[in-house]
Every structure is written in structure tokens, then in C-alpha cells.
From TrEMBL, chains A, B:
This is DeoR/GlpR transcriptional regulator. SUPFAM superfamilies: NagB/RpiA/CoA transferase-like, Winged helix' DNA-binding domain. It comes from Mesorhizobium tamadayense. InterPro entries: Carb_Metab_HTH_regulators (IPR050313), DeoR-like_C (IPR014036), DeoR_HTH (IPR001034), NagB/RpiA_transferase-like (IPR037171), Tscrpt_reg_HTH_DeoR_CS (IPR018356), WH-like_DNA-bd_sf (IPR036388), WH_DNA-bd_sf (IPR036390). PROSITE patterns: HTH_DEOR_1, HTH_DEOR_2. Residues 3-58 form the HTH deoR-type domain. PANTHER family: GLYCEROL-3-PHOSPHATE REGULON REPRESSOR (PTHR30363:SF4), HTH-TYPE TRANSCRIPTIONAL REGULATOR SRLR-RELATED (PTHR30363). Keywords: DNA-binding, Repressor, Transcription, Transcription regulation. The keyword DNA-binding applies. One of its GO terms (molecular function) is DNA binding. SMART domains: DeoRC (SM01134), HTH_DEOR (SM00420).
Amino acid sequence: MLTEERHQFIRDRLAAEGKVLAGELASRFGVSEDTVRRDLRELAKAGQLRRVYGGAVASAPFAASTISQRGSHAVEEKMRLARAAVGVLAAGQTLFIDGGTTNEAIARAIPRDIELTVATNSLGVASALADLPLVELIMLGGRYIRDLGTCVGGDTLAAVAQLGADLFFLGSCGLDASRGVTAFDSAEAEVKRAMARNSAGIVIAATNDKLATAAPYRVAAADAIRHLVVERTAPAAILADFERQGAEIHVA
Amino acid sequence: MLTEERHQFIRDRLAAEGKVLAGELASRFGVSEDTVRRDLRELAKAGQLRRVYGGAVASAPFAASTISQRGSHAVEEKMRLARAAVGVLAAGQTLFIDGGTTNEAIARAIPRDIELTVATNSLGVASALADLPLVELIMLGGRYIRDLGTCVGGDTLAAVAQLGADLFFLGSCGLDASRGVTAFDSAEAEVKRAMARNSAGIVIAATNDKLATAAPYRVAAADAIRHLVVERTAPAAILADFERQGAEIHVA
DNA sequence: TTTCTTTGTGCACATTCTTGCATGATATGC
DNA sequence: GCATATCATGCAAGAATGTGCACAAAGAAA
């Protein structure tokens, strides 16, 4: 990876999120934090960002507008969840990743230097993974549903049926200890079920607003969840319910 | 391989990807890295690129952001081609669109108010179409090839086989009146052939640098081209050859 | 044809750039 | 104040680069 590319990525990220973290960039790029710090130093010298402890933020003129516009609380929280979620990955694994903004954040958080095989029906996830050199990306085709950002339908199901994965990153709509994982859409639920069936373990990263809610279509039982990634502020009682059913809880 | 050919390839690659790697070019051209560096030095002196450690990137004014979006100075020309190309569309049609920066430009040029069904194996095209409300988008899944930006392989072929289209927007690598349409990659060519087989007509939008060139793998004969969209400056003699074989010429 | 010149190419060597690690300094959170 | 995380600096190894030189191919001149 060219130095210039890292700089460009940092500029883009700053424009989009308003800030970057040194450690996160390092794992994303697959270089040491020293190198990232050198990059940040250079960019700071060129006035393209302002260094802060732990990373950097967009330089003054842009800071106000960009951060307030895009760096909403939810984005922030999802990135934190994403960083914790990628912690369960091991090199060489095969993954299913379905749609949703949280899963897209996870895809963006996957470091550059880990070798994975990923099958996804989400355009957003695929785009995020498209330039990771060590990720073998399999696009699960089908009818694209605009509201979901994913492909569903018979073709998608057929493609999923041909694959097997170690982990399935399930973008849940509702998550309840008794009712399990649920989705709003029938076709969407069907694809998720197929992915769950063909995976050894399910990983769910859920913001607080998903906890203890349910949608019409059942995707999986609560005891099928192997890893549950939640915010620091998630209600302990709810987490205990999931833990009792075998989920490993990861606090972001 | 002529020096000038290498220079042209480097310019093209830079326009398409925004960067080139010295080592990669050397193995691609079958010459030593020294020679590539000499090429890069010359092009840099002519202001056509900016050298960086490890290769070169598109020169300053377009020091762009994401891989897919930018096409350097050729972007203007491609947009013009794209606007002309969408002129052949009629409401209600079904299309195949494969990969390439020109096809991505075409996808972005499709107006919001036209109803279409589009099947594509290109992530870039799919992303461009994802938010067009009247476009029914079918993603053709498969193994994603980073260099091409498209999905290829058996799954892709199977998905194509189930569909039929009115028009196929073929992203050509080489285009020659006698040798027909050709591609650089075997798997890529296979998918293109399948799409051509299942379409009533082929549409090609080609910048001048594609005309009268050929790549190893044959995709379709020249007389299979129904619409050929070219720049205003395209050599008339070449166009006449295609016209004789039944192509309708559209000048952007 | 032979010879000379020009051009393009590859190789060897010295130089420069980049990167990761070690060390000590500084900032942050409790 | 202390433990921890983050940072700057110096250094060494490896990668990329520039330069000089030799060699081969193509064309011009004899």
C-alpha cells in the first residue's frame, strides 16, 4: 500500500467522520502505529488535519461543519461496536455478512492484513471490502432491495446454499432473549435463515435500541447466538438473559 | 512492446485506478523495473502523473478519493460518452451492464425517471444504480475480482444464463473491426460472452484509445455490435469499418 | 554488406526512502 | 500519584530509486 494511499484514506475518513484513531488506522492499513503517526505528522504539517491525543481531527475550518453533519452519535457508537466485533475474527475464517449499517461499519473496520473469505449480499459491505487485498470476496447476487441495501430472492438463497461459513455477522432488526432474532421483511428473513443454517456461529452487534425488541419474522433462536457485541450502556439484565443461553458478551 | 504503448497503458491505468505500482507494471509489461521507472520519470516530467515511492498516482488536480469515482482527465470524456450512450435506452427495457469505468459513467448517467431492469456484475455499476427508484436492479453474484471490479466465475455465468436482456452494455478492453471485441482476462471474457449470448443487442461506448486495439480473449464479433458510441474525434475510417458491419454510430 | 549512430533495455552499485522496534518522554484516567 | 496509553526520537534493515555502463536492435551512411 502506497504512502499516498494511506494519506488519501485518512483525508477521506476525516472528511466523512471528522476524526481518525491512530490504532484503528494502523490495523486497517496493516502497518505499525508508528507509521500511522508519521503519516498524521506529515498531514498535520501540511495543515490537512489537527493532531490530538489518540489520533487526529479535521483541521479547524472544516471541523465544525463536518463533525456536526456526519459524526452523529449513532455513527460513533456503531464504529465502537464494529471495532469490538472484529475482535472475534481469526485469520483464515470464512464469513457471511449480511446488510445493515452496523454490518457496514464492521466491514469498514476489518483490518487490511487479515486473510478472510467473505460472502455478502450487501452492496455496502461489498464496497467496503472491495479494496482489502487479503479478503476473498464473494458477492451473493439476486434481486436488489433498495430499502435493505441487500440482495434477496431465490438466486441469493441458492448462492448461500453452496457455501459454508465459520461465522455469520447477522444484522438484526429485533433482538429479544425469548423471541430470538427477528426481521421486518419476509424475503430478508429467509436469506438470514439460510446464512444462519450454513454457519458454525452467529455474531450480532446490536445498539441498545435493538435490544429487547422484536419484528414479525423469526430468523434464529436466541441460543444460536455465539457472540453478542453491545454498547457499554446496555442493560445488564438483558445481557444476562442472552448469556444464560450461551452467548459470549463483548462490551464495546 | 513499444515505449509509447507502455506510456499509454500507464495513462489509462492511472485514469481508471488513480495509481500504479512500479513492480506490478514491470511484470505486466515483461520489462525490468528500471524501464518502468524511466517511463514514470518521463510521464512525470510531462506532468501526466505524480511519482510516489512505490509507483505513481494521478497528478495533483485529481488527487482523488475513492477508487471507483474518479477517472482523472478522461472523466470528462467518459461522461460525454455516457450521456450519449443513455440515449439508446427506452423505458421498460432490460439491460446487462458489465464492468469498467465507462460503464460506471453510463450507469451514473441514467436518468432518475426511466423504468428499467438492470442486471450487472459490477459493484461500481450496482452502487451507481442502487438509489434509482425506478430501476429494478439484479446483482449478478460470484467471485469478486479486485482488478476488474466485477464478479466472475461459475455462479456469475449461471445467473446470467437465467436472464435475457434487450441490450448489453459491453465494457470493451479492445475493439477492432476485424478482430471484434476482446478482453484481457479469460474469466472476464467468459462472462461477457454469456451476456452477449443472452442479449438482443450490444452497445459499446469506447474512448479513442480503445479503437483499433485488441486483447487476447475474443468476446464478440464486430458485426454483433448494434450501437457504437464514440468520441467526436474518433477516426472516420475506423468508424466506417464498424458501420459497414451493421453498427449504428453515435457521436458523443 | 559493413560500419556507425541512435535508441532502448538490463544490470550493478551507491543512495535515498520507508518502516518497525527500542527507548525515554509525555499525556490521560482513576 | 500511579498505572496505562500515546507519542517523539534514534537506529537498523529492507525496499525503492538514481546513475553509470554495457549490450542489443534498428536505422543511416559508407
